[in-house]
Amino acid sequence: MKRYLSTAIATATLLAGAVAFPAMGGASQGAVLTEETNVGQIFTNNFNPADSQSTGTQMSLNALSFEPLLMWNALKPHQWTPWLATSEVFNATGQSVTFTMNPKAVWSNGKPVTASDVANEFNALSNNASLDVFGLPPLAQPATTSGNKVTLTYATPQFSNEEALSSVLIFPVAGDSGIPQSAIVVNGTTSLSNSRVIGNGPYLPTSYSGQLIKYTLSPH
Fold it and tell me: N or C: less crowded end of the chain, CB within 10 Å?
């Protein structure tokens, strides 16, 4: 799967007002991205992507470890690139949308990112308001899966939410297979320390201090 690392790094740097120094080597060389705070700012060891107050959210770093279903081009409306999913298809009324998962999508522990994982997250977002930092409408019924496809059903047409639905960052939630309990995101208030992060993006936060975070290239 392609990794637009330069875009992610530039976005994190610009939005966070921080300085990022990437050492772009191969995985065997342990490529490292360093994020340093501004004067007077202190990082907290919290990388919960559903917590609006976490370091990952406040510093716009969540997308380094957790990726969306599709990657959208902000400069070209309605243009997207396959990412964790390969397609997004609405039914005729726009009330149901089906995503087909990318077979190359994996968690950082090597387990595949499955349709069930995505269904679990959208069900959790719909049932637990503290998890829904994306501002999504509630599901009309639980998300369903069939093979590598996951279908979301809503009470009203969601054509206008085409980008919002597929831009949700996918993170581990209860029910995901092969994910340790310590990495599960249970709500939007519980802290998730750097050592517990299992993501599906290019980097993992492997070293933390109050003023310095080091991200290391994911082995997968």
Answer: N
